[in-house]
Amino acid sequence: MEISQSIGCWWRGLQLWYNDQDYMQAIDAWEEAMSFISWANDELFVDMSLKNSAIQERKYLTLDGDAALLSELSPLLLFLAGCYLDAQEYQKARVTLRRCLALTSFDAERDSTTNKRDLFHRTVRECIFCVEEDPECLEPWVEARELVQYAIEVNQQLEQERLGEISEANSVPWSDPWQRPGFLYPIKNQDSVYDRLRHPSWCRLLEEKWGDIRNEFDRLIHRPGGARTLSTSPRHWPAVGSGEHRGGAGAHDGSVVAPGGDWREVVIFGSGENPRLAPCTSELLEQTCPDAVSLARQGGGEIVFSVLASGTHIRPHCGSTNLRLTAHLGLVIPENDEDHKRCSIRVADQWLDWEEGKIIVFDDSFEHEVINERSTLRGVLLLRFWHPNLPKEERGIALQKALDAKSDDELQRYSPPSPSNDGVMMLRAMEKSRCISCSRHGYSSIRLNTRSLTFECQCGQSIDS
Ligand SMILES: [Zn+2]
């Protein structure tokens, strides 16, 4: 039977991965595992979004054998897709994810246990990652929005069918296709944009002192006449996403700048900070919004001078978490000189304009894009601050959860799942347990016993408790 041949190859791949550390051969074995299944013809799926093609794939899946057995393959499919993404093989990743999405959404509908639904959510997140990384995907945000919409619909269907059985922890994390950060924490009454009446009180104080901040900003530009006279960015400011000035942090941010654009920053508080560059501004910030300063120092945000050269477009994307909000204090905003050219920011479905000396507040976990088509540079003071609807006593726990989720994601990429669905082995692989005999830990300590098909520590101790 085809499924049992697949499972045999799966075990062989695990032996190659854990015992021989021959990762390329392991991936070959898993590719072979998938070749025993009668998948639909890939040519049917040209020019279709991941979501639509996955729904199509469900029609073509041959579930003649035992559907439950076939669904056992979905953790392996998800892992294999991650390998392809690591190797930047986007076409293979897309095909694999389409199948995985078809299987896991089907499974979530059949069987609403936490495991099945969690696998479906993880698959949706991997699909989003795939479209965002694939350079041939021209509008990844459109596909990402559709994927989240699909996840929400599957979830709603489940809730209707099994009314009352689904706990909040078990449902999809998303409730709005516009809001899809890497880590989404349940926060009440979230909004994409916050009007002036809902600004924190320190916003007024910063607005009153904006002239002092602007003077310091101008001095940092090193140019007579200040920023107003520039169309390009100051060359001595680091580019966002260069990864150098922030100790590697924010390295991903630069990839959202459309070709030809130029986005630079000076960090006042946060990783790679230099508050002495702007002594007056940093003192003012410490006095008026200590919350934002402390968030930056805990690694949950940053306060920066941010400049966007003429002709820059920051493509639609979502921030990494919803634990914080973002404020922009307008410092240098180019005038609407000709042909109604645009200098504005879109958050969800709303376009906002900056004003010098005025603050706008938005949630960057919602899809947003920024555009400066005008002839001079745009400069703002950007601050992240704790989401006001997140209870103070939950801040530390929530930030820790966000960091843990990120490291779990990374560890999962190097921990191939087992057909025996051995949860104890996965705990070891994910650095969450140690050998009781030699205290080795992590996936590199794992060996497969090929006779009994069980996992052992490198020292011979069985991994089952
Ligand atoms: Zn051991």
Report on the structure:
This protein is an alpha+beta fold and 465 residues long. The protein has 3 domains: 37-170, Serine Threonine Protein Phosphatase 5, Tetratricopeptide repeat, CATH 1.25.40; 193-390, Jelly Rolls; 403-457, no CATH class. Helices cover 40% and strands 14% of the residues. It contains 14 helices and 12 strands. The protein has helices at residues 2-19, 23-35, 50-60, 67-72, 74-86, 90-110, 114-133, 140-161, 202-208, 210-221, 279-288, 290-297, 395-412, 423-429, and strands at residues 193-194, 263-269, 303-308, 312-317, 324-332, 343-347, 350-353, 359-362, 368-372, 378-386, 446-449, 454-457. A hairpin with a 4-residue loop joins strand 11 (446-449) and strand 12. Helix 5 packs antiparallel against helix 6 (90-110). It starts with a helix and ends in an 8-residue tail after the last strand. Bound molecules: zinc ion (ZN). Residues 435, 437-438, 440, 457, 459, 461 line the site of zinc ion.
